[in-house]
Amino acid sequence: MAGHGHGDTPAFEPKNKVVKWFDSRLPIFSLMNEQAIVFPTPKNLNYMWTFGAILTFMLVTMIVSGITLAMHYAANTELAFDRVEDIMRNVNFGWLLRYIHAVGASMFFFAVYMHIARGLYYGSYKAPREVLWMLGVIILILMMATAFMGYVLPWGQMSGWGATVITNLFSAIPLVGPSITQWLWGGFAVDNATLNRFFALHYLLPFVIAGVVVLHIWALHVTGNNNPTGVSVKSSKDTVPFSPYLTIKDGFAIVVFMLLYAWFVFYVPNYLGHPDNYIQFNPLVTPAHIVPEWYLLPFYAMLRAIPDKLGGVMVMFGSLLILLVIPWLDTSRVRSARYRPMFKIAFWLFVVTCIALGWLGSQPAEGIYVILARFFTFYYFAFFLILMPVLGIIETPKPLPTSIADDVLAKSKKKGHTQPEPTAGSGGVSPEGATAAPKKD
């Protein structure tokens, strides 16, 4: 993966003869050293930057648990529901595998929403990271498609009716809509062919996600990390090697995240699910309220807020596609909301809007709930289409620090700490000597 210029970094010289022989023919170890050991990283990254590592951990967890579950699953409408129950009761640690996978979907989306929120707050979508951001949005869309198809596989009431409602949305597309819906179904209703298609795609898409994640990380290593100040790296004093500084921080964050994950798995595994999904799908009995999983509720609320079916579909998909063009909607030359007082207020109102839409998506589509959903849907789009362009023009940002190092030193002085410069005899690793200065953005 191409990255910052590491011309000042000493060349990687393996001490082990076998490693040296292999690396001279296929430089995997040199690549790992450059991209995961000495890679220069801003020294002021906070714990919001650990969600990238958490998401990588969750992707691996979901793929491994999913492959194992697929060994015992049957994509057949006559067998699927009972087979899931069989996994829970008769497969060794099948209950644990199933809960790791089911709860893992929620943990995955919680982490990705935190990752996106951090990107929005600190302006990680701004030049030169536009492609990095767009790849992240593509990953989000693929995750939603994968999660939706996975929710159908247990073949409970919410599974079958959720598939019916969502696939029916495509029928609103003029001319080709009905044909697309029939193609998705594999027939004229949600049935065995639908379950087979969704299972095949649910198994395939995580590997597509993994491929896009590789591109996402590649793009990150070309431009380098953003940081809480939004100030570009100017010298080696602004950075530290990725390892051990960031690997230890990421590792600690993953352990803390796993504690939350484990609490849900072992104590309240069904808390985030719907009880109706423990009833086998019956196309003749409609549930009182058809709702998707919690992480899709904000988009479901936007869909139902629009009285026209086609309009609702356009708003729902538009709420995702608009994320792709954010880098060109934000007109401010300052990245971080830390120095943008008006944008900071707008951002936190946006967070409240997303949470409110999530709650409204779980309520009946009637009365005050619809009115509130329309109000918050308006603000969702207004944040991107009105506030981002206008605030960048009218807002007066706070003064930016001259460099990342100066910001770190200023904070240390406020706390009463001092940061002595590392010396050759101190036994420590000097950031100046361990990393090269990345290119300026």
Automatic annotation (TrEMBL):
Name assigned to this protein: Cytochrome b
GO cellular component: respiratory chain complex III
Cofactor names: heme; heme b
PANTHER family for this protein: CYTOCHROME B
Chief localization: membrane
InterPro entries noted in UniProt: Cyt_b/b6_C (IPR005798), Cyt_b/b6_C_sf (IPR036150), Cyt_b/b6_N (IPR005797), Cytb/b6-like_sf (IPR027387), Cytochrome_b (IPR030689), Cytochrome_b_C_euk/bac (IPR048260), Cytochrome_b_N_euk/bac (IPR048259), Di-haem_cyt_TM (IPR016174)
Regions that span the bilayer: 47-75, 96-116, 131-153, 160-180, 200-220, 251-268, 310-329, 341-361, 367-394
UniProt GO BP: respiratory electron transport chain
Cofactor note: Binds 2 heme groups non-covalently.
UniProt keyword annotations, A-Z: Electron transport, Heme, Iron, Membrane, Metal-binding, Respiratory chain, Transmembrane, Transmembrane helix, Transport
Residue ranges of domain Cytochrome b/b6 C-terminal region profile in the record: 232-402
Family named by the database record: Belongs to the cytochrome b family.
Domain of life: Bacteria
